[in-house]
Amino acid sequence: MVKKKGKYDDLFAICNENGLDYKAVVLDFTKGRTDSLSSLSDIAYSTLLNRLKTLNKSSNKKFVKKPGDLQRKKMIRLALTMHWGGGDMKTAIKELDEWCKKQKFKKGFMHHTAGEYDLLVTIFEQRVYADYYRDLNK
């Protein structure tokens, strides 16, 4: 698979035009497996680009992030700060998925509504993250 300079320019342009983080788009497209464009196959990249182009053309309004996107990113950042998954994003997301399944809503990490994410972020910050820092000071 030969990578050409400027291969991802179209995707970057659509993301910039709509105020999206390309890594978040890739992470959402791969359902949490990766946030790296270079790890996508040519077919997967073409599929992603076509979906973005279709969404961009199908409406006059800007592409809207999935509800709960900011909360998911915050939880991932906190998990990585606590070295969940050894600092590896894929493993941290898997651990977050397991943690979420043990909580009130019994759903995987990517399957909550924005309101449910609000509660999960609160629990994660006030209990898990706070406990992590408390244990560091022992």
Write up what this structure looks like:
- With 138 residues, this protein is mainly α.
- It has two domains: 9-58, no CATH class; 69-136.
- It is built from six helices and no strands.
- Helix 4 (69-81) crosses helix 5 (89-101) and helix 4 runs parallel beside helix 6 (114-136).
- It is elongated.
- The model has no long low-confidence stretch (mean pLDDT 86).
Features:
single chain, mainly alpha, 138 residues, 60% helix, elongated, 2 domains
Helix content: 55-70%
End-to-end separation: 51 Å
Strand tally: 0
Quaternary form: single chain
Q: Give me the strand/helix succession.
A: HHHHHH
Number of helices: 6
Question: Mean pLDDT across all residues, rounded?
Answer: 86
Note poorly predicted spans: none
How does the major sheet shape up?
none
Radius of gyration based on Cα positions: 17 Å
Tell me what portion of residues adopts beta-strand conformation.
under 5%
Which structural category do the helix and sheet elements fall into? mainly alpha
How would you sum up the global shape? elongated
How many domains is the backbone divided into? 2
What topology does this entry show?
Layout: H1 9-17, H2 22-29, H3 42-58, H4 69-81, H5 89-101, H6 114-136
Short description:
The protein is mainly alpha-helical and 138 residues long. It has helices at 9-17, 22-29, 42-58, 69-81, 89-101, 114-136.
